[in-house]
Amino acid sequence: MAARKRKETSSATTASAPEQRDYIQVAIDYAKDAVADKKGKRFGRWVRLAAERFLNDLKRARYDHAKGTSKATPKNAPFMFDAWHAWDPCDFIEKLPHVEGEWDTPTVVMHESHIFFVVNLFGFRNHDGTRRFSTALFAVARKNAKSFLCSAVLLYCFCCEAGNGPQVISAATTGSQARIVFNVAKRMVELVSDLREAFTLEPFANAIARYEVGGTFKPINAKASTQDGLNPSHCGIDEIHAHKNHDLLNVLKSAAGARKNVLFVYTTTEGYTNPGPWGEIRHFAKQVLQGVVEADHFLAVYFALDDEDKTAGIEADGDFDETKWIKANPLMEVNPLLMKEIRKEAVEAKAMPGRHAEFKIKRLNRPSAAAGGWVNLVKWKACKGTVDLEWLRQFPCWGGLDLASTRDLTSFRLVWNVNGVLYTHGWRFVPAAAVAGRTERGLVPYQAWVQGGFLIEAGAEVTDYDAVHACILAAKERFNIQMIGFDSWNAKQLVQKLQAEDVPLQEFIQGGKSYHPAMQALELAYVEGNLAHGSDPVLNWCASNLVARTDPNMNTAPDKKRAPEPPKKVKKGFVTL
Questions:
Q1: How far apart (Å, rounded) are the C-alpha atoms in residues 395 and 409?
Q2: Which end is more exposed in the chain, N or C (fewer Cβ atoms within 10 Å of the end residue's Cβ)?
Q3: What does the pLDDT look like over 75-114, one tens digit per residue?
Q4: Integer Cα distance of 269 and 303 in angstroms
Q5: Quick check: 570 pLDDT over 50?
Q6: Residues 6 or more apart whose Cβ sits within 8 Å of residue 89
Q7: What are the pLDDT digits (tens) for 488-508?
Q8: Torsion angle, alpha carbons of 331, 335, 341, 346, to 10
Q9: Closest CA relative to residue 380, chosen from 541, 517, 512
């Protein structure tokens, strides 16, 4: 370890891996195997999508593994792939010792699923040499070494990523949970004298010091996170599903704002539904993997059995089908004891219904409750036809207005029906506080949408309805608006002003009977390709969040209470995607 060459920062794209294990080829082969597994025998849906994203990103970076070069430039790709940076952390981790259990080798030999994650995380670089990914999720069933992986990644960052005064943090809601990742790192430092010497490390009871750069690696819990002086460079949050609110994550995100190459690593197994950040993070990760949201900063690798998705042609895996367990338990290939443990718990889960939910969550990595989306995203994304507003001026159109509460999206949208094809264009408004909050949490890219003109920032803490008023009047002058449907919630003053200016308005009364004709028409249009939305990223995101309910009369309507991105305060509102 002491003789190991370090390369603190580099934007070079010609470095090739030393003649040892070819970690990059392992990751590429793993991804190819996953993509080729069309029937889902070994790989679940989300890993297949992660693999497809990885291979596509290598093409975007114009990476040639035979030469170890990436020909990406800022003009043709937002990031590149650096072979050395992909190889180095894998080599570092495989020089670390085992700290628990009995193994055939004195040092770690990573499973290909872990190599796939690490090569992804560190190989892709921004053009200034920093990591492309600033947030990474590794979700897997229990006993698949996720805490070790988090610990090893954080220790590598602590030792090998440049920067003075690094603050590496293992964070959790409780001190004992935070110490799980920290204690693994501490024990590895204690066992390897070469590691301590090479990086001037000294382990203490509650911290690891790195004297060379004045850095610390320590565990903190939710209470400690409120103390002054936090400036984290790298954060590992193990079992993010257990957090019952966003407080800890918000504090850490805010405190890390001044760091150039910050990293947040979430490692978790599924958990019971709670108001914490996990539901939002999971949903965002799936949106990224499906290509609904473009987030080049966010890496997601999610191992789980498949749930039914009729629109994607995916059948549900049986909870007690042993051949499917590997989808949530990739280490089962190399750890026969894991299969034995799962089998024993499956026997109890079958006999005792109370154990079934725990088995499903912890061993199959399935959420305790999940709401299925109404929109077939494959067919929806295919409806990305151009929306030419100048050409559409000659045709009549209809509108919808939804005034949101506090920091939610306020939406005004127009729809044209031209020769049986629905064309749509809209304006969305949010206050600056909502943009700042979403940006800080790093999930939904509000700031990027504002900069791209897809979202209008209006107001400070709440949406400024004067901006909405001005937008509607401008649309009235520009387009042939026949009628605008509106929900009466919080709309009285704005509606009165618009009516005084001869804007045609009609109140929309919520209910399945009212919604059903429009829901049917929208579904028929996009499924048959008779919809053009211009690939509007905010509209795509909203569509992916739409969950429907059906009443006893088979009328379909949006169900905000079950939506993955529900409003902070559920209200009656005219839903305008």
A1: 28
A2: N
A3: 889 999 999 999 999 999 999 999 887 778 889 999 999 9
A4: 9
A5: no
A6: 118, 121, 122, 153, 156, 160
A7: 777 788 889 999 999 999 988
A8: 50
A9: 541
